[in-house]
């Protein structure tokens, strides 16, 4: 009898030890699951950053009639940035906006010709994501009220027709910029309406980017313009001469959102014209100006990417001959800028060396699949 009792006690003890061992991994798994960050739409893993280039046909190149742009001198980036407008009836630089300019037709509203369909039909672009800047200036109220649903729907169905290609839609980009003069309530309502319409249409290949202009923005001000976590996939901002004033990285980290530096070009604040937006002349073909640009703009730009691998997941360089385009001739920030990288061998070499690092995602047959994966 004593032997039987002893045997039962040993068996019970062994059973308890096994139960404890089996329970521990389950508890650990639950803890890991709770702490693991869920990636947003088309967000790469930490330590990876999609490289985009923009922002019109001349700057990007890679086409028969536009063959001295970024794609003609560097490996294809992971994406390209273009623009369209919902501004029916408005006129700029002799161009009257109708429909969705720059998508199906070659249109020039003062910033060199744009035509996304030409690019999307070319093999050089087949493994690149697309970022679209959607301007609503003067019409955010009409969009919010549903008065321009036909144009919004047309754009959504076109995006859907692109199939597996990831599209980053920057709705009312640089919403706080005084040049856009958006109404805050109408802007937020328009942003939400566009997403809700696209959800109803089953537009699944789009990520919604909420982009500020990147200067003079407090956390409280950004919060007051925020459409909400359910509407925003990515936070974005512009990286120009006032890059050190930007608060968007901190804001996005607080919200658990990735950051898209959606507009970036080398600009340096003018030392004697503070508060005017005026920047120093920066022509990358000029060796002295190019060296200053590298020290005062390129280095901080790359440093921002490297120091925020958990948040900064996409960047778009504007490879533009700004000073040659009518839109920028009287703009104090861009009127003296030529940011074409290939004009300077040393800048081109340094750019190539940096963007060849494994953290930058470029065009590849596997890019779209990797961006669809979520943790």
Structural features, described:
The protein has 375 residues and is of the alpha/beta class. The protein has a domain at 43-265 and 306-319: Glycosidases (TIM Barrel), CATH 3.20.20. 35% of the residues lie in helices and 16% in strands. The protein has helices spanning 2-35, 57-60, 116-120, 140-144, 149-161, 184-201, 219-225, 248-255, 287-307, 345-355, 367-372; strands at residues 49-54, 79-85, 91-92, 95-96, 129-135, 167-171, 206-212, 234-239, 259-264, 282-283, 312-318, 337-338, 360-361. The strands form three sheets. An eight-stranded parallel β-barrel has the order 1-2-5-6-7-8-9-11. The protein has a two-stranded antiparallel sheet with strand order 3-4. A two-stranded parallel sheet has the order 10-12. α5 packs across α6. The longest helix is centred in the first third of the chain and has 34 residues, at 2-35. The protein is globular, with a radius of gyration of 25 Å. The relative contact order is 0.15. The model is unreliable at 1-36 (pLDDT under 50).
């Amino acid at each position: 009898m004593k032997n039987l009792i002893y045997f039962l006690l040993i068996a019970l003890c062994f059973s308890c030890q096994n139960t404890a061992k089996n329970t521990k991994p389950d508890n650990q798994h639950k803890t890991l699951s709770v702490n693991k960050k869920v990636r947003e739409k088309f967000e790469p893993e930490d330590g990876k950053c999609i490289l985009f280039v923009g922002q019109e046909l001349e700057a990007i190149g890679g086409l028969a009639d536009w063959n001295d742009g970024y794609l003609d001198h560097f490996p294809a980036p992971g994406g390209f940035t273009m623009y369209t407008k919902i501004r029916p009836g408005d006129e700029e630089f002799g161009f009257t906006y109708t429909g969705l300019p720059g998508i199906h037709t070659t249109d020039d509203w003062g910033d060199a010709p744009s035509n996304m369909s030409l690019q999307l039909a070319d093999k050089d672009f087949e493994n690149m994501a697309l970022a679209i800047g959607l301007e609503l200036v003067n019409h955010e109220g009409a969009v919010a009220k549903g008065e321009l649903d036909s144009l919004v729907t047309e754009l959504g169905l076109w995006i859907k027709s692109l199939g597996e290609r990831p599209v980053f839609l920057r709705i009312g980009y640089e919403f706080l910029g005084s040049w856009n003069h958006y109404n805050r309530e109408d802007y937020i309502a328009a942003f939400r309406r566009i997403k809700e319409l696209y959800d109803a249409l089953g537009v699944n290949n789009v990520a919604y980017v909420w982009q500020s202009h990147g200067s003079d923005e407090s956390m409280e001000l950004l919060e007051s313009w925020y459409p909400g976590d359910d509407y925003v996939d990515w936070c974005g901002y512009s990286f120009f001469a006032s890059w050190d004033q930007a608060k968007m990285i901190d804001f996005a980290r607080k919200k658990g959102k990735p950051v898209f530096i959606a507009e970036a070009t080398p600009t340096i604040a003018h030392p004697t014209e503070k508060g005017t937006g005026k920047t120093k002349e920066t022509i990358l073909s000029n060796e002295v100006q190019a060296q200053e640009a590298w020290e005062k703009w390129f280095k901080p730009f790359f440093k921002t990417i490297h120091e925020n691998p958990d948040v900064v997941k996409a960047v778009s360089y504007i490879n533009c001959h700004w000073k040659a385009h009518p839109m920028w001739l009287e703009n104090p920030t861009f009127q003296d800028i030529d940011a074409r990288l290939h004009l300077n061998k040393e800048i081109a070499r340094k750019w190539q060396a940096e963007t060849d690092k494994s953290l930058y995602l470029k065009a590849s047959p596997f890019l779209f699949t990797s961006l669809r994966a979520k943790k």
